[in-house]
Amino acid sequence: MIAFENVSFAYEKNRPVIKDLAFQIEDGESVGLIGANGAGKSTVMKLLLGLLPAQGHILVDDLQVTKENLAQIRRKLGFVLQNSDNQMFMPTVYEDMMFAPLNYMMMREEAEARVDAVLERLGLTELKHRHNHKLSGGEKRMAAIATILAMEPEVILMDEPTSALDPFNRRVVINIIREMDQTKIITSHDLDMILDTCGRVILLSEGRIAADGPADRILRDRDLLEANHMELPLSLSGRS
Fold first, then answer.
1. pLDDT tens digit string along 199-234?
2. Are the C-beta atoms of residues 237 and 44 closer than 8 Å to each other?
3. What is the spatial distance between Cα 2 and Cα 178, in angstroms, rounded to a whole number?
4. Please, what is the end-to-end C-alpha distance for the chain in angstroms?
5. For position 240, what pLDDT does the model report?
6. Which end of the chain is less enclosed by CB atoms within 10 A, N or C?
7. pLDDT for the residue 239
């Protein structure tokens, strides 16, 4: 379980960007975190990862996000960055995928078996020994997801996972997300992708929760979305 309990945060004194945020995410939920630019989505992710100091309490499996608990908490969380170039830092996909398991003191044979299993599950075996700088944008995004899955996190955080992808690779990434059984928190402006992959949506506006509920209900509510500077998903705009 993930819990935010009256969490606030300000980059500048007396100008909070997150204001008394309170919600819970249960094990296995897939939650879309949406909102206009500046609503606080990325800040929520950074607070959960302990990259920013929060006022209030953030819990991951009853562990409070504090400096003392960060190592334990971060082993539970896998973060797929919006820009895969900031995530894939080793020469090859294989070396990137091996990096975290080996640093978690896993035996090499076990780590290699895990890497092979993840690549086979995602249909990416042909990428194993490819050099990262030779991957297409879509291939690199999928390899970045594979790298996180090799860590076997309990929770996967994704920041704009389909941004800048062509339609084919966008659909591949959506299918990969749908097959994951971990708890997922996904931030995106691609509301059609959120509708495809998330059962629940938390809509942020100016650092507060404007709505929290079933994705199908919230993403069909034209008045709610437009009041918060968003538009209906393209797949629904002609029918609602």
1. 999 999 999 999 999 999 999 999 999 999 999 998
2. no
3. 20
4. 34
5. 45
6. C
7. 54
Query: Is the CB of residue 166 less than 8 Å from the CB of residue 173?
Result: no
Owner of token pair 């630019």: 37
How far is Cα 39 from Cα 100, in angstroms, rounded to an integer?
32
How many other C-beta atoms can be found within 10 angstroms of the C-beta atom of residue 147?
25
- Eight-state DSSP code of residue 131: B
Amino acid at 202: I
d(CA 183, CA 29): 5
Are 156 and 182 in contact by the 8 Å Cβ rule? The answer is: yes
Q: What angle do CA 173, 75, 30 make, to 5 degrees?
A: 40
DSSP letters spanning 105-133: T--HHHHHHHHHHHHHHHT-GGGTT-BGG
* Cα separation values, 36 from 42, 130, 204, 214, Å: 11, 37, 8, 19
**Burial class of residue 124 in the structure, from the number of CB atoms within 10 Å of its CB (0-12 exposed, 13-18 middle, 19+ buried):** buried
